[in-house]
Amino acid sequence: EMAGCRVLAASGSSLFNRSRDIVLEPDNWKNPRVISLIGGKLTVYRQTAIQVMNILQPSLPTKRVIADTAKLKLVPVDGDHG
User: Fold this and answer.
1) Which of the residues 36, 56, 68, 71 could staple to 25 if both were Cys, CB 3.0 to 4.6 A apart?
2) 5-31 residue pLDDT tens
3) Cβ distance 44 to 22 under 8 Å?
4) How many CB atoms within 10 Å of residue 37?
5) Dihedral over Cα of 77, 20, 5, 28: its sign
């Protein structure tokens, strides 16, 4: 089991009406080195990772793609492969 807290981005609305959308804020849009991630859900981690990599791409060396994570099968954590 897992528990945690999620930081939600500030807004003009009440705490209960804040967006649960992911906010990604790089230190520099042209040459990002650090990205602050606010909000979101653990269940959308793959989509979040894609967004982060798209932002970081200008700062990363060019590499040949060897795996497409969208096609990799996820294995349950509890070991139940049934």
Assistant:
1) 36
2) 667 777 776 767 777 788 899 999 999
3) yes
4) 13
5) positive
